[in-house]
Amino acid sequence: MHIDSGRIVRVGDVDDVASGANVIDAGDLIVMPGLVDSHVHVNEPGRTDWEGFETATRAAAAGGVTTLLDMPLNSIPATTTVSALREKCRAAEGKTWIDVGFIGGVVPGNAGALGDLARAGVLAFKCFLVPSGVPEFAHVTEPDLREAAPILAALGLPLMVHAELPEVVEAATLDATAGDPTRYATYLASRPAAAEHEAVALIIEIAEVTAMRAHIVHVSSARTAAMVRGARDRGVRLTAETCPHYLWFTAADVPDGATEYKCAPPIRAGDDREGLWQALADGELSMIVSDHSPCPPILKRRDVGDFFVAWGGIASLQLGASIIWTAMRDRGSSLGHLVEWMSTAPARLVGLDRRKGRIAAGFDADLVFFDPDAEFTVQAEMLLHRHAVTPYLGARLRGVVNRTYVRGVLAYDRLDGPAVSPPGELLLPPHS
Ligand SMILES: [Zn+2]
């Protein structure tokens, strides 16, 4: 790869080296495009004690992620106005080891701000159909969605949707709360797959009549993938993602009281896990992103082990490539699939597909040196997230990131750790 000013100029033969060029030899390691993670909760400003741009992007670089998209919620303010976006940019500027783009929020009453947010540089929008878990990011109702959808369709940006319907969750929670709140089965029963299916049906209907681009985040149920296929076959502009935790764990793996496994929608049965893998292979699900959503350990309430009071969110930003590569061993997929699902497809979703997600002339030199055969055991000391709470502690994983380059600059080296100065940039239009 010939790299100049952070871009790949051309890909040539191995002995095609200009005199005076600075040569970096990856040896026997795989060189692959840096991962693009379009679903990360960085939480800064406002909840920087949960995570932050420095810690999140260093962890990302260590995991081979070279671009992340920051979700509009869990920071304070939430990114639902242009001034909030500017505040977040000020918090992030000069503190990112990888490139960072932003997602705007769709909340009740901010339809008038969506165009300005798009012009200020958000690459996508996000909404919740159920309570989000934080008071400053309200969930939308069907009328809110019907107001926002034609605006989003005209802007051409995708709406990422947390698809669970509150009526279904509320009714199931009422039934479930008679059970033991420290048992995972009780929590699982409170958020049935039907809540996801009904929400996805609503989104499909709205996307179909408005031509809005919709994207279902963190699909947990195999049946949802079939619904996505049906809609796409009819021409609905719909994509969907799933996350490492739905592809790695099953409900049976979650010990009682182990709130580090709590997320919403919940990790489901083994049939769903295998169905999600099949949906990736079949293209119904097009990408795997982390939904990294950490919190301080105290908020996981491991002391009481109550799934209903614990914060919902799983930390995995640094581990995604290794988790997925390890799980793929038994399923006959190649590294090419991993690159498609974790780099190329997310870049396409957020409109970065002419810069990110491929090794080709004209693309940013975002590169990972990956050892596909090396193994390691996940230990708290190696995690660069602000908090080491994660259900993957102790997991034996295959696939080690040796080096990560962001636009040709070394961001992380396995032996030396993160680079001294952060090479990342904010992915904003030049004028903002
Ligand atoms: Zn999320």
Category from helices, strands and their pairing: alpha/beta
- Give the tally of β-strands: 15
The DSSP helix count reads 12
Radius of gyration: 21 Å
Largest sheet: spatial strand order:
4-5-6-7-8-9-10-11
Order of helices and strands: EEEEHEHEHEHEHHHEHEHHEHHEEEE
Q: What profile does the largest beta sheet have? A: 8 strands, parallel
Q: What is the approximate shape?
A: globular
Residue-averaged pLDDT, rounded?
97
Catalogue the ligands. zinc ion
Rounded to the nearest angstrom, the distance between the terminal CA atoms is 32 Å
Helical residues, percent: 25-40%
Low-confidence stretches: none
- Sheet-strand content, in percent, reads 15-25%
Note the topology:
Elements (H helix, E strand, L loop, with lengths): L1 E3 L2 E4 L19 E4 L1 E6 L12 H10 L2 E6 L11 H11 L6 E7 L8 H7 L3 E5 L13 H14 L3 E4 L3 H11 L7 H7 L2 H18 L3 E3 L5 H12 L4 E5 L1 H5 L21 H13 L4 E2 L31 H9 L6 H15 L17 E11 L18 E11 L2 E5 L3 E2 L14
Parallel strand pairs: 4-5, 5-6, 6-7, 7-8, 8-9, 9-10, 10-11
Antiparallel strand pairs: 1-2, 3-12, 12-13, 13-14, 14-15
Helix pairs in contact: 4-7, 5-6, 7-8, 8-10
Overview of this protein structure:
The protein is of the alpha/beta class and 432 residues long. Helix content is 31%, strand content 18%. α4 (142-155) crosses α7 (193-210) and α8 packs parallel to α10. The longest helix has 18 residues, at 193-210. The structure holds zinc ion. Zinc ion binds next to loops.
List the main descriptive attributes of the protein structure presented here.
alpha/beta; five-stranded antiparallel sheet; binds zinc ion; 15 strands; 31% helix
